Amino acid sequence: MTLPSAENQTSFTEFILLGFTNIKQGKTFLFAFFFTLYTICFIGNSFIIAVVLLNQTLHTPMYFFLGNLSFLDICYISVTVPKMLADLWTESPSISFLGCAAQLYFLVTLVGSEGFLLASMALDRYVAICRPLTYTSLMNKWICLQLAMISWTLGFFNASLHTALTFHLVFCQTNRINHFFCDIPPLLSISCSNTSVNEIALLTVGVFVGLSPFLFTLISYAFILHAILNNQQKKQSHKAISTCVSHLTVVILFYGSSIFTYVRPTSSYSLERDQLVGVLYSILTPTLNPLIYSLRNKEVKLAMRKLIGAKTCFCGI
Q1: Distance between CA 5 and CA 241 in Å, rounded?
Q2: What per-residue confidence (pLDDT) applies to 9?
Q3: Which of 91, 112, 146, 257 is exposed most, by the fewest CB atoms within 10 A?
Q4: Range of the domain at 193
């Protein structure tokens, strides 16, 4: 494929996000719907962070990772939804070149970090259930901090690579992105450069960032399930199953949508289908995470009641 010469390139200063431009009616409903989801996500995840920080009984590895996940989800939904709400409100779905690059960078950072963070949570549950006698020594504060730092660092490295590769491309024919936020597949689809290197990098790195943590998580839960089924104490088994089901639900929602988005050829990109998947992994999953963990976790619910009760008593003084 012949690349356009520099003098024939059009230097776009902005991109047009086509996500919801084809919807003539119902934009008010979409605005209210996504604003509600954003509010629920922000309040729910903030509340979990506050509960974990303020309750001493939750200062354990599992809730340390849960607090990290809640913080990540707040960042996750804040990267895409506020801009989308502004586009729906003003009906001017444009984003600057630099703004698009920043949105892509932070989005890919958070996607990569969440994958490794979920794998760290699976490791924590594996050690707690399958190696209970060594849990305190293996999952100490320093190890947990290192796992969290590695998750974030790999996410930043992943984003740096893909953002550099994506915005090294030439966009000379159109600046219209078939999505409601800047993401790698829709940007590759409008580039007039040869994107084979980008696609190879997306698939190769995607195997490491996406499939490897996913397989590690599945293997961990295979061992966990085996240990639970061999446990004679039904009460402990029930508690372990409840915790693991919450985590597995989040894992399936996240990995199912993100792997579908990134670990596949760009030629299979579809506006309607990929927008739906984009809503799933960038909006619905961060919103559902606090509900999944709080509704199925007795310790979190108890800590929430104590926190609400303490605030009520304080306000009544």
Answers
A1: 60
A2: 46
A3: 91
A4: 13-316
